[in-house]
């Protein structure tokens, strides 16, 4: 359906989007995940036609849209701060897109009522948008985008301005609506929770490039890149140096925190600098009487003095004095020296 | 305990009430004497059987009709230039933008005589264009066109500021939302932007209309007595065809109209502030990219700079270059650069327009202006202090203080003539009239500064160890010093340029600069003309310097208009 090919865009000489390509399929929801300033909103505005790329192609069902005005693209857009028309009431806001399309009055009425029902705002037709709460305003904005039944829905951090509880409510409503309507959607956010809740596929944008794409579970399981692991907060990222050769794709990596044996398909050489991800998966710990020199420790063991223990319901988050952290099912004491067996994976 | 406390606060209240009424004593008694007493005299004169004759009413209707007509036309044309200009400044970044914006704002602060003299210097019978192109034959002075153009020149900045501010505070995402919902750019304008701008367009138009409605100097000097608005007719019925009751009747009609417009304006202003999420002005700005944008921006830059620069620059030019023979000058005429018009200001010629060297007018003006500064600050400070944190009663007093703004300068002069006829020989009356005009501006400049000092600021300072005196010296004084300087300069500028009231009440032997310019302009001869230009140039320079001072001292968030 939607096809984005080789989009380039620079701002004041600095490249913001650097060769972006992806597809959105029928009924698919894509989440563009990235830090602020990563260009994800700009990419959305380019797809909407509100900005033009320096080069590249946006097409829908095989038709090139690069030179099509935004009002002819038939893409719905929902903004973070709603962008409701303050001089129009709820009904006129929601019916705006339908009026632009010369739909009959009865049809307009029917579809406004339907859209408001979908976002749980039935009966709000005559209300002034300026009198609504933030959550209600965002629901109106959503209904306004839904009413013309666009070919594609786009969301630019739509829940960013709302408080946590409201965000969770709206997120699950949004999930339901997206499933019901079967409209393909692109959802831009910096919040991984939102992305993983909604997305069929997650695209992670970094330095103007999509560095990782895939289903949420897949990205979670194999982040592959240092930025992805750090951005998603998957665990301890440890720098090290390859010291031992290949044995069944297993490499030995020497680091300041211990020696690790990691299985990966990368073509490493002895002396290569590598990044490893040590996930803080719930584990058992062992007390250590005296610390051994790093070279003599067992493989894949994190060792350190406990500096902080936080109770997190079903587990304890334990931080070492060297900055590493693990989740443990039982709490050690602060100041104790412990060691924990971890699994590590290799990052590019 | 409880009752003791209550008694205490009651006593406190009584104490503040008495100090507060002391604050009001001076400004209110000044207003009572110099405004409300003359106003009552005018009203008494108006509602007299001998005044309300058919003849008078018919004339009043005719004048009122033309006043509305020219104001309406002026406003429409001002919008025509102002709206695209507002768009230009609100949406585009281009080189020299702030300079051009400042240029469009200059006329608004200039005295009417300067503007009239500027257009005279450019398009008048002795103006640059006529002198440089002797074959060109068109009438400018004494036409409706001249009046309209001067009004556009004056008031375009109001549209640019008010509508431009509204335009640049519109959320650009609103347009994006409308476009993604299927609206083309025409519909975005028609359905979204214009409705959102409507209150600001109405408010600014009404303000422009109000200024055009009460315009005096422009119509008197550029209309050459061929056109009579209410304001001009009042003046004529006082000095040329004396008919005091008719003048009173006209001024009451005028006051009534301006009051209605002011009320309407206040309602529009309060309505134009509905915004959901005002954006920073920056995000709306961009440099022109497409050919259409580039053509629009360069055309309007050129148009605006020509329109605003030509009259203002031909004034000093015309005052420094002799382009025609002076009257009575025979033989070889020295054309070109000359300082004669300026040196002539210091000469007391027999048979000239004055009994004194014309430069005396400048000294008179400076004297009057200084007196106005002292007087208006003396009266304005207590009023502003009370209004900074007004009680409910004092909120009613606020519009009362502002009322002289609604009445025109000529009407104030009329009131003075009717009420203080016996003292008309005294030059003291002029600073009093100027203070009346300047006082609302002074109060409006001081009041936000006084109100802007939050109690927390003083508390923070004292918690950091500042004694009450140190608090006053380090917090209050620096903030107020700027505002006081701004207010004083405001009063000074207003007094320098005041034309309508001064023309009526100033003694012939104590002319001010604007009065002198009017007299020079109404006399024949190249020398008189040149001296008018020289005087107007001096006034323009003084006023411009004052404006720059005000801009420097004024609090950035103090309201406009």
How would you describe this structure to a colleague?
The complex is a heterodimer of chains A (348) and B (561). Chain A has two domains: 2-227, P-loop containing nucleotide triphosphate hydrolases (Rossmann fold); 235-347, no CATH class. Chain A has helices at residues 40-48, 90-100, 105-118, 134-146, 164-181, 192-198, 216-221, 226-231, and strands spanning 2-11, 14-24, 29-34, 55-60, 63-64, 75-78, 152-156, 185-189, 201-206, 209-214, 236-247, 250-255, 258-263, 273-278, 285-287, 301-312, 315-320, 325-328, 337-341, 344-347. Chain A is of the alpha+beta class and 348 residues long. Chain A has a six-stranded mixed β-sheet with strand order 6-7-8-3-9-10, sandwiched between helices. In chain A, strands 13-12-11-14-20 form a five-stranded antiparallel β-sheet. The longest helix of chain A has 18 residues, at 164-181. The mean pLDDT of chain A is 88. Helix content of chain A is 24%, strand content 36%. Chain B has 561 residues and is mainly α. Chain B has two domains: 61-322, MetI-like fold (Orthogonal Bundle); 347-561, Orthogonal Bundle (MetI-like fold). Chain B has helices spanning 2-46, 54-91, 97-109, 112-123, 128-132, 144-168, 172-180, 185-213, 217-222, 230-239, 244-271, 291-320, 340-343, 359-388, 392-406, 409-419, 429-451, 455-463, 468-497, 500-505, 513-522, 526-553; strands at 321-322, 336-337. In chain B, helix 6 packs across helix 8 and helix 16 crosses helix 17 (429-451). The radius of gyration of chain B is 26 Å and the shape is globular. Chain A binds chain B through residues 45, 48-50, 69-77, 79, 81-87, 96-97, 100-101, 129-130, 137, 141, 144-145, 148, 154, and chain B through 171, 173-174, 176-184, 187, 191-192, 195-196, 274-277.
């Amino acid at each position: 359906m939607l096809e984005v090919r080789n989009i380039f865009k620079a701002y004041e000489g600095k490249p913001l989007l650097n060769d972006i390509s992806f597809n959105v399929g029928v009924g698919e929801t894509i989440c563009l995940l990235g830090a602020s300033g990563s260009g994800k909103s700009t990419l959305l505005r380019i797809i909407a036609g509100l900005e033009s790329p320096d080069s590249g192609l946006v097409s829908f069902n095989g038709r090139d849209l690069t030179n099509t005005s935004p009002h002819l693209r038939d893409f719905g857009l929902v903004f973070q701060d709603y962008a409701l028309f303050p001089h129009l009431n709820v009904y006129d806001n929601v019916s705006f897109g339908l009026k632009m399309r010369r739909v009959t009055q009865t049809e307009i009425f029917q579809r406004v009522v339907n859209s408001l029902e979908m976002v749980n705002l039935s009966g709000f037709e005559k209300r002034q948008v300026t009198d609504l709460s933030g959550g209600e305003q965002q629901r109106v904005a959503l209904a306004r985008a839904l009413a013309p039944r666009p070919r594609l829905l786009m969301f630019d951090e739509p829940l960013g301005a709302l408080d946590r509880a409201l965000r969770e409510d709206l997120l699950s409503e949004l999930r339901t609506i997206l499933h019901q309507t079967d409209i393909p959607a692109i959802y831009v956010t910096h919040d991984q929770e939102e992305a993983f809740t909604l997305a069929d596929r997650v695209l992670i944008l970094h330095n103007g490039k999509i560095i990782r794409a895939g289903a949420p579970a897949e990205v979670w399981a194999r982040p592959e890149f240092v930025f992805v692991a750090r951005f998603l907060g998957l665990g301890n990222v440890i720098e090290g140096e390859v010291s031992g050769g290949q044995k069944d794709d297993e490499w030995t990596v020497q680091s300041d925190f211990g020696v690790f044996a990691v299985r990966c398909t990368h073509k490493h050489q002895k002396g290569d600098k590598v990044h490893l991800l040590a996930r803080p998966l719930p584990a058992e710990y062992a007390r250590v009487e005296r610390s051994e020199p790093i070279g003599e420790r067992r493989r894949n063991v994190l060792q350190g003095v406990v500096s902080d223990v936080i109770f997190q319901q079903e587990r304890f988050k334990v931080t070492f004095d060297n900055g590493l952290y693990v989740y443990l099912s039982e709490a050690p004491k602060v100041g104790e020296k412990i060691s924990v067996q971890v699994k590590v994976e290799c990052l590019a | 305990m409880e009752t003791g406390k209550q008694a205490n606060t009651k006593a406190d209240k009584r104490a503040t009430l008495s100090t507060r009424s002391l604050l009001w004593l001076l400004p209110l008694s000044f207003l009572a004497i110099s405004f409300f007493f003359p106003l009552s005299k005018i009203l008494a004169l108006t509602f007299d059987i001998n005044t309300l004759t058919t003849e008078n009413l018919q004339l009043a209707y005719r004048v009122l009709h033309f006043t509305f007509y020219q104001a309406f036309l002026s406003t429409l044309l001002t919008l025509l230039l102002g709206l695209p200009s507002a768009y230009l400044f609100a949406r585009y970044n281009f080189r020299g933008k702030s300079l051009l914006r400042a240029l469009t704002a200059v006329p608004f602060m200039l005295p009417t005589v300067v503007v009239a003299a500027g257009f005279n210097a450019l398009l008048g019978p002795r103006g640059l264009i006529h002198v440089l192109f002797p074959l060109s034959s068109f009438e400018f002075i004494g036409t409706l066109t001249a009046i309209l153009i001067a009004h556009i020149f004056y008031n375009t900045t109001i549209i640019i500021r008010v509508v431009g501010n509204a335009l640049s505070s519109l959320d650009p995402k609103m347009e994006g939302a409308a476009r993604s919902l299927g609206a083309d750019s025409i519909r975005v304008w028609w359905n979204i932007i214009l409705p959102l701008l409507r209150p600001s367009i109405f408010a600014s138009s009404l303000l422009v209309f109000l200024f055009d409605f009460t315009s005096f100097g422009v119509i008197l000097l550029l209309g050459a007595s061929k056109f009579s608005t209410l304001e001009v007719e009042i003046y004529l019925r006082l000095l040329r065809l004396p008919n005091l009751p008719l003048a009173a009747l006209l001024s009451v009609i005028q006051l009534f109209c301006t009051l209605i417009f002011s009320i309407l304006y206040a309602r529009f202003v309060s309505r134009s502030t509905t915004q959901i999420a005002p954006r920073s002005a920056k995000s709306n700005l961009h440099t022109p990219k497409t050919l259409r944008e580039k053509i629009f921006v360069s055309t309007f830059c050129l148009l605006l700079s020509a329109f605003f620069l030509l009259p203002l620059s031909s004034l000093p030019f015309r005052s420094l270059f002799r382009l025609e023979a002076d009257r009575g000058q025979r033989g070889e005429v020295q054309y070109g650069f000359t300082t004669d018009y300026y040196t002539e200001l210091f000469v007391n010629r027999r048979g000239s327009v004055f009994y004194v060297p014309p430069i005396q007018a400048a000294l008179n003006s400076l004297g009057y202006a200084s007196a106005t500064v002292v007087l208006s600050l003396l009266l304005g400070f207590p009023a502003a202090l009370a209004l900074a944190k007004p009680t409910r009663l004092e909120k009613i007093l606020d519009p009362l203080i502002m009322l002289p703004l609604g009445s025109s300068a000529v009407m104030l002069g009329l009131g003075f003539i009717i009420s203080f006829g016996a003292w008309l020989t005294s030059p003291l009356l002029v600073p009093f009239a100027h203070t009346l005009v300047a006082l609302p501006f002074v109060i409006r400049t001081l009041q936000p500064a006084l109100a802007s000092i939050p109690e927390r600021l003083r508390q923070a300072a004292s918690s950091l160890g500042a004694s009450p005196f140190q608090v006053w010296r380090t917090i209050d004084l620096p903030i107020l010093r700027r505002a006081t300087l701004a207010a004083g300069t405001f009063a000074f500028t207003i007094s320098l340029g005041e034309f309508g009231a001064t023309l009526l009440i100033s003694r012939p032997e104590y002319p001010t600069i604007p009065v002198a310019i009017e007299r020079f302009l109404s006399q024949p001869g190249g020398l008189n003309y040149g001296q008018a230009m020289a005087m107007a140039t001096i006034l323009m320079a003084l006023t411009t310097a004052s404006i720059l001072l005000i801009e420097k001292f004024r609090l950035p968030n103090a309201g406009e208009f």
